[in-house]
Amino acid sequence: MKIVVDMMGGDHGLEATLPALKKFHESHPDVELIAVGDKAKIGEVPFEVVDAPEALRMDAGIMDVFRDKTSSMAVSIITAKDRGADAVISAGSTAAFLSLATLRLKKMEGILRPALISDFPTLEGGKTTILDIGASNENTPEELVQFAIMGSLYHKAVHKKESPRVYLLSNGTEEDKGKDVVKQAHKMLKESKEVNFLGNIEARETLSGDADVIVADGYSGNVLLKSTEGTAKAMSKLIKKAFKKNLLTKIGYLFARSGFKQMSKTMDYKSTGGAILLGINSIAVKAHGNSEPYGFYSALEVAYKGAKGGLLGEIRKGLKDGSAA
Amino acid sequence: MKIVVDMMGGDHGLEATLPALKKFHESHPDVELIAVGDKAKIGEVPFEVVDAPEALRMDAGIMDVFRDKTSSMAVSIITAKDRGADAVISAGSTAAFLSLATLRLKKMEGILRPALISDFPTLEGGKTTILDIGASNENTPEELVQFAIMGSLYHKAVHKKESPRVYLLSNGTEEDKGKDVVKQAHKMLKESKEVNFLGNIEARETLSGDADVIVADGYSGNVLLKSTEGTAKAMSKLIKKAFKKNLLTKIGYLFARSGFKQMSKTMDYKSTGGAILLGINSIAVKAHGNSEPYGFYSALEVAYKGAKGGLLGEIRKGLKDGSAA
């Protein structure tokens, strides 16, 4: 298995990627790692390094991105293509990564639109897979049906769960609820035989763990992802504030600490590693921009599990068999 | 000022509405209250009662709703129309209330689409007004511009804030981000002179307090509302679980309690009272279905503030003057 890694992208650059990659190399000796970054700064490492010292500028416009062939992100994606890598990973700009990966690695045959996919932690300690979270703005019913298939295969490959429970995001659970594209997708999914489709789900149930996969158009999925993350962050701030109120509450924290550490673990977005662009000819993992070593390591783990689970092959097969696709 | 109240709607019916109304009557002697409900059960009260003993059935189909002229909700809305009430309020089914209010009270002249509006508590203890949260599924750019005007006038009338800061929900802060309808609305709002428009806002900033008003199409606004509420609820569950972990954490709660009580107050959705349908010829307030007396009282308070602030007149005026409307 071959994984190409952009070492320079993300807020922390090498400070995050290098320790993560070293640790990953130790724990996964079966993987051929190709690190793309500043060779001089990376120094002696027990895996291949391709020299590309400059990260993509965060303020690069879309035309700059398309012309760029020297940034560590561009070189990573080009290397992934030339070397037939199973996965490529970067913590750089999401928009640039989506554009470059789609441009250079190309859509899989039969795929209408690639989708950006991410896992949410659930209250029960499991994961819910959501797609699309922003590769598109608007989607057709046919695209939503493909997202359901891809999401289901992803969840199966990465989380090892047979027959994942797939839901469609809507503003009501009844099948006639939602905008037209959602109502049409609902009808098509009900007929579909490859997906274990269980109906509509409302945005308030995202964290309940009832769904393994939630399908949404890219714009709504993005709103869902960001409002969930934003609210969780806001609540965490309020918890800190509550414990800091006065001396008594500070003492309370000392007693209650262990419970809240467990809570942080349950709600740990970093452990989900980042997002994957599915539907192109490689597993393209976008790690969180502010990833620290642990988060970047989790993203590498996601790429690894996807490749190990034969995700791309499964999607190719799923699309061929799939009458709904 | 005249307010008509559906006494029988909502999960708790008279148990919630009657104590709330009695208290409201005491604190607002200037308001003429018309209670619509089961006269025998309501008994002796110091305000007018219109007899309509039956609540609308929760499983009523849309055609039942349109034909219905005897349920407490239908009678409330008809009474509001006949008596020229300033506001009408119900805790019954949202879909039925929206349909009936629009059908019987009619859209205001010049309004393209009514919008359902709600307040979110912010981290700083303020309120952010969000619309549309579900009266429509999809909206045109022109409708979004009207929502911005209505939301701004609502915030000014109810929260007494001059020149409310208005943002447009999108999946990025740059003005070229979002689906087409959002990009077009952005351009129109930038030109608008009646609205203090400050640009796009992402769903993760909803609770930050940066925005006084957030404008969204009904489908996305509904996703935003429900995922924020759902995540806040999920986090509250986790906090309880954290404190209940073991004896030590339980002791911790005793010390930290005062901080967390303050937090509950900050995040108290019930204090926002419910949602208002704006753009029809009355202030139609939909109280939360599970409102208890305190929540229903808050909803009455919202209706009162809107009427007192001359909200309907302001909207009529705003639409007439508004080049953007």
DSSP strand count of chain A: 11
Q: What is the helix/strand order of chain A?
A: EHEHEHHEHEEHEHEEHHEEHH
Helical percentage of chain A: 40-55%
The outline of chain A comes out as globular
Going by helix content, strand content and strand pairing, the class of chain A is alpha/beta
Query: Helical segment tally of chain A?
Result: 11
Low-confidence stretches of chain A: none
What composes the largest sheet of chain A?
11 strands, mixed
Major sheet strand order of chain A: 3-2-1-4-11-10-5-6-9-7-8
Can you put this structure into words, describing what you see?
With 325 residues, chain A is of the alpha/beta class. Chain A contains 11 helices and 11 strands. In chain A, strands 3-2-1-4-11-10-5-6-9-7-8 form an 11-stranded mixed sheet, sandwiched between helices. In chain A, helix 2 (39-42) links the parallel strand 2 (32-37) and strand 3 (48-51). The longest helix of chain A has 26 residues, at 218-243. Chain A is globular. The first copy, chain A, starts with a strand and ends with a helix. In chain A, 53% of the residues are buried. The model of chain A has no long low-confidence stretch (mean pLDDT 90). Chains A and B meet through helix 8 and helix 9 of A and helix 8 and helix 9 of B.
How is this fold's topology laid out?
The structure is a homodimer of 325-residue chains.
Chain A: E1 2-6, H1 14-27, E2 32-37, H2 39-42, E3 48-51, H3 62-67, H4 72-82, E4 87-90, H5 94-105, E5 115-121, E6 127-131, H6 141-159, E7 166-169, H7 180-191, E8 197-201, E9 213-215, H8 218-243, H9 247-266, E10 274-278, E11 283-287, H10 293-308, H11 311-321
